[in-house]
Specification:
This protein is α+β, with helices and mostly antiparallel strands and 194 residues long. The protein is built from two helices and nine strands. It has helices at residues 2-37, 108-111; strands spanning 45-46, 52-54, 57-67, 80-91, 104-105, 118-121, 137-146, 154-165, 175-188. It has a five-stranded antiparallel sheet, with no helix packed on it. Strands 1-9-8-5 form a four-stranded mixed sheet, with no helix packed on it. Strand 2 (52-54) and strand 3 form a beta hairpin.
């Protein structure tokens, strides 16, 4: 008799555990489905002449065009073109910084086929200088890419930025930490210049 009771108790515990596990799995599936169905925040999109705060930088895109001629210190090779992007950047931090290198990113299908940008300060043609806080500077990004690479008449670039945290989880100090895409840039590609 006692063995039947122990067997029944074991079976009841197994059924109860399986039932609770099933309900937990259903609840988790429902919560994940609701999270996936929720509206994703729409990231801002800017164009020429509009300003946007992008982490450490206040950015204001000016124009973008192509050339096959030398631009600042960069000369396209045979079979290449340069895509030249003029932008005004202002350092929003309290220290000199040159962390603007990856602020503007091409879509993956183009990024795989182009060289890393050369970045110049227009007023003295210096390459990737540290920018002083609170002082807007006109910068030029120059990407070299195959001449036959189709970029279209409209250029879309993702805007990446560091986020500010008042308290870092490890050190407890404020600062600019992890990067995220915070918006996009959409501009017409102007006719070849130079």
């Amino acid at each position: 008799m006692w063995s039947h009771f122990v067997t029944f108790r074991s079976k009841a515990t197994a059924w109860l555990t399986a039932g609770l596990g099933s309900f937990a799995a259903l609840g988790l599936a429902f919560a994940m489905g609701a999270f996936e169905a929720a509206e994703k925040p729409v990231l801002p999109e800017i164009t020429a002449g509009q300003s946007m705060e992008a982490g450490k930088w206040l950015i204001k895109p000016l124009k973008i065009w192509t050339t096959s001629q030398k631009i600042y210190g960069t000369t396209p090779k045979e079979g290449q073109k340069a895509v030249v992007f003029e932008v005004e950047l202002m350092n929003r931090t309290i220290e000199s910084d040159r962390g603007y290198y990856t602020t503007f990113q091409w879509p993956a299908d183009i990024a795989d086929k182009i060289e890393q940008p050369m970045i110049y300060l227009t007023r003295d043609e210096s390459m990737t200088p540290s920018l002083q806080p609170g002082m807007p500077e006109k910068m030029v990004y120059v990407w070299l890419m195959p001449k036959d690479l189709a970029t279209g008449s409209e250029i879309r670039l993702a805007i990446e930025a560091y986020g500010f945290k008042y308290r870092n989880n490890l050190t407890g100090t404020p600062g600019w930490w992890s990067k995220n895409i915070v918006g996009s840039l959409h501009m017409p590609l102007q006719q070849e210049q130079g």
